[in-house]
Amino acid sequence: MKVTDYIKNSRQTLFSFEILPPLKGKSIQSIYDGIDPLIEFNPKFVNVTYHREEYVYKEQENGLLEKVSIRKRPGTVGICAAIMNKYKVDAVPHLICGGFSKEETENALIDLQFLGIDNVLALRGDPIKTENAFKAHPRGHRFASELIHQVNDMNEGKYCVDDIKMAPTDFCIGAAGYPEKHFEAMNLKTDLIHLKKKVEAGASYIVTQMFFDNQKYFAFVQACRDFGIDVPIIPGLKPIRSLNHITFLPKFFHIDYPEALSNELLKCKTNSDVEQVGIEWGIQQSKELIAQNVPCVHYYTMSNSDAVKAIAQNIF
Ligand code: FAD
């Protein structure tokens, strides 16, 4: 079922979460171990991230270094199929522009359709780790709006290979939004212009980047509405879990902690102190969002569901 239909059909705030494929070599059981503790909270959908290739330098026998492309977390589509099969819960694969030609995207979407997957979250994707800016595939897409356009075209029966009659797909398309602005955007206004393009191209809901200050989410939703973006905007929450997260999350995701939270984090001496603060903060954030009737609260597990479970026990 489509994410937008779940939202339309529910009078209560929904629960959903995002998982990462395991590092290459780990079994599907590691995915189930992350999902099992959260199933009792009745998630309507589970997102599975997509991780593109990275380049590493491997020493050859002659001592020279060879640049090799590797994918550390393959398996997004297989994991989605396994989740739907085992839990009967909709899985939402993330689909990215990076590394894909339009034809490869088309073929990937055909696979998803054959698997009975109704939803995709369409993203540009991050730059490759060793590159400092995003580079599009020569026959691919530069921006998420272009990718969304392609999926929407397929929903209308228009494929890249247009000399044969094609059956239309019926994907519900989600897009990413940034309450604190995407880090490359000149300002919030230009980011909103580009966000609106994603909705005009066919995105029917938005999932936000993590944020720790609900006021920023409420202001973002208002700015979207003022700008004519009227699709559901699902807030994304991430419980901080370790001393390392304190600096990693703002650096990697370009977000700020509100002062009340940073004051609490400054007192933490151990990972478990931070986890406790993260859980309490997540509970407060979730309660306030639900009191404002948000359509769904979407939690980023980042491969560990303990803190999300601790929050969900108090909320759902
Ligand atoms: P876009 O919407 O294309 O925007 C990228 C930048 O370009 C923005 O600054 C925007 O303002 C600007 N822009 C857009 N259109 C134009 C235009 N026409 N002209 C000029 N500028 C333009 N990354 C992954 O690799 N895998 C994942 O699974 C993944 N999951 C994510 C899930 C969520 C909920 C979120 C919020 C992010 C996720 N990301 C993921 C990260 C995401 O790929 C990065 O944030 C990426 O840098 C931007 O993706 P986007 O889809 O928002 O890009």
Overview features:
single chain, 316 residues, alpha/beta, TIM Barrel, eight-stranded parallel beta barrel, two-stranded antiparallel sheet, 11 helices, 18% strand, binds flavin-adenine dinucleotide
Structure, described:
It contains eleven helices and ten strands. It has a single domain, classed as Alpha-Beta Barrel (TIM Barrel). An eight-stranded parallel beta barrel has the order 1-2-5-6-7-8-9-10, surrounded by six helices. By secondary structure, the protein is an alpha/beta fold.
Shape: globular
CATH architecture annotation = Alpha-Beta Barrel
Distance between the termini: 21 Å
Output the strand order for the largest sheet. 1-2-5-6-7-8-9-10
Number of helices: 11
**Ligand species:** flavin-adenine dinucleotide
Number of domains: 1
Unreliable parts: none
Report the CATH C-level class: Alpha Beta
Please describe the biggest sheet, giving its number of strands, its sense, and whether it closes into a barrel.
Answer: 8 strands, parallel, barrel
What share of the residues does DSSP label as strand, in percent?
15-25%
Question: How many extended strands?
Answer: 10
Class of secondary structure makeup: alpha/beta
Order of helices and strands: HEHEEEHEHEHEHEHEHHHEH
- Average residue pLDDT: 96
CATH third-level topology = TIM Barrel
Specify Rg, calculated over alpha carbons: 20 Å
Q: Work out the helicity level.
A: 40-55%
Give the topology:
Elements: H1 3-9, E1 14-19, H2 29-35, E2 45-48, E3 54-59, E4 65-70, H3 76-87, E5 90-96, H4 102-114, E6 119-123, H5 144-155, E7 172-177, H6 188-201, E8 205-210, H7 214-226, E9 233-237, H8 243-253, H9 259-266, H10 271-291, E10 296-300, H11 306-315
Parallel strand pairs: 1-2, 1-10, 2-5, 5-6, 6-7, 7-8, 8-9, 9-10
Antiparallel strand pairs: 3-4
Helix pairs in contact: 5-6, 10-11
The chain binds flavin-adenine dinucleotide.
Flavin-adenine dinucleotide is lined by residues 49-50, 94, 96, 123-126, 143-145, 176, 182, 184-185, 190-191, 194, 198, 207, 209, 236.
